[in-house]
């Protein structure tokens, strides 16, 4: 089994917690390729990401799996503050940390993201020509088609809660949280039929996941369109699309793959959360390993 250790790295004056996986044996001359990974909307490093990291490390990659500031085992107050710009900074800080590790070839480092972070890795890679490859799985590409899937009453409640939370932040109050996930008909950011059982299916042992995010995100979320930066990504970009996705519209992800200069597209007849488990996981991780070996080996 690959070795896993607990590490931290600095980002924005705080410490991000991470798992660092190293393959068995000494690193070859020139160092090993590496992968930097983080999860999607509100999720932490323990929600099935170790399953991917173990496969990647067994194939010879050094892997860093981290929690964003304010989430999981990482530092940051208030808790559950999902700030898109900060999460991009955390990815860049994780890249800097891995680039400085002994036994890593800094010219062969990939970014991996899933769902919300599937958009993050595209945005970060668009500004960093040294990134060697990108995997974007079931990605959040564009808020406009995504928010069209959210019931209008929930959008209105989210907006009101966002104003309340932002005003409270200015007055020094604790964050006002809204649920990340709820069953259909409930109030949360995600209420598709697949959402609640999907999150339950990926919960890791000892997870620190909490079903909530600071509501102020609702004021910025409509402007988040990371897929529009795909044309600036110089690295090979693998986009893994779930054709039955009820959470992140697949058509936008297909367009993103086509817009990337070195985009590659793989499609699966599954829902958003199916990609993390069972046969769909096995097929997906095999496709991702083939892509990563081809471009980083």
Automatic annotation (TrEMBL):
Family annotation (SUPFAM superfamilies): alpha/beta-Hydrolases (SSF53474)
Domain called Xaa-Pro dipeptidyl-peptidase-like: residue spans: 13-143
Gene3D superfamilies noted in UniProt: alpha/beta hydrolase (3.40.50.1820)
Source domain of life: Bacteria
InterPro entries: AB_hydrolase_fold, FrsA_esterase, Xaa-Pro-like_dom
Any one Pfam family match given in the protein's UniProt record, by short name: Peptidase_S15
UniProt keyword list: Hydrolase
Gene Ontology molecular function, alphabetical: carboxylic ester hydrolase activity
Annotated family: Belongs to the AB hydrolase superfamily.
Protein's recorded name: Dienelactone hydrolase
Organism from which the protein derives: Patulibacter medicamentivorans
